[in-house]
Amino acid sequence: MARKEPEATTMTLISLSNVRKSYGPHEVIRDVSTSVAKGEVLCLIGPSGSGKSTLLRCINGLEDYQGGEILVHGARVDRNDRNGIRGIRTRVSMVFQRFNLFPHRTALENVAEGPIYVKGEPRAEALERSRDLLARVGLADKIDAHPAQLSGGQQQRVAIARALGMKPDAILFDEPTSALDPELVGEVLGVMRSLADEGMTMVVVTHEMGFARDVADRVIFLDGGVLLEDGPPQEVLVRPQNPRTQDFLRRILPS
């Protein structure tokens, strides 16, 4: 399938302006500004502790931020506005590093939970669509399995199906393969590649440089909470301009 191109930049879905985030005196995000267009795949790379995951959690309202502004479809992300946050989370789903599935529910029930109880979809309709989504991620034969009966890769694919169940405008992926055994990484990245091909807007925190190179429209490099580099993967990953980016890639990429 040919990759759908991102829509014009006027179709900005997520906007960050001078965002700052601190834990006490420790500033973990420092004046970060960027945007994500509808249909764009943005990969965030950088060393551990650079603020990548925290930035995702701020976009989804899981963390508060102390300065600047985050907008989703023009609506400000504000944790004090519970209805606003609820609305944003129906439009922007998140896939976590550790799956976060309900252990007492089957794969099918995990996927259908949000549409039924958050969006108020009729149960029969939500279950039918959840079956289709599990088939889409290659788990049609696992709908009645509980998380403990699934491999890590299968659990993460259920988590992706659950995110899709909310019919989101965008999905945030927080290091979705870092908790997986190496042989299971490919099956999750394969699902993510297919979503990108279909035009899903995605913001991905990842250490998978091959995925970032092949799938991303843009790559951002963060270090110490500062956005040091932002551009197409061929520029950031192949011809980085910032010395810190060059040093980071030199350490993690094969020579």
Description:
With 255 residues, the chain is of the alpha/beta class. Helices cover 38% and strands 25% of the residues. A hairpin with a 2-residue loop joins strand 1 (12-23) and strand 2 (26-37). The chain starts with 11 loop residues before the first strand and ends with a helix. The mean pLDDT is 93.
Count the E strands. Answer: 10
Proportion in helices? 25-40%
In DSSP terms (H or I, runs of 4 or more residues), the helix count works out at: 9
Rough outline: globular
> How much strand content do the residues show?
15-25%
**How are the strands of the biggest sheet laid out side by side?**
6-7-8-3-9-10
Order of helices and strands: EEEHEEHEHHHEHEHEEHH
Describe the structure concisely for a colleague.
The protein has 255 residues and is of the alpha/beta class. The protein contains nine helices and ten strands.
Features:
255 residues, alpha/beta, four-stranded antiparallel sheet, 38% helix
Write the topology of this structure.
Layout: E1 12-23, E2 26-37, E3 41-45, H1 52-59, E4 67-72, E5 75-76, H2 82-91, E6 92-95, H3 107-117, H4 123-136, H5 152-165, E7 170-174, H6 182-197, E8 201-205, H7 209-215, E9 218-223, E10 226-231, H8 233-238, H9 243-252
Parallel strand pairs: 3-8, 3-9, 6-7, 7-8
Antiparallel strand pairs: 1-2, 1-4, 4-5, 9-10
Helix pairs in contact: 3-4, 3-5, 4-5, 5-6
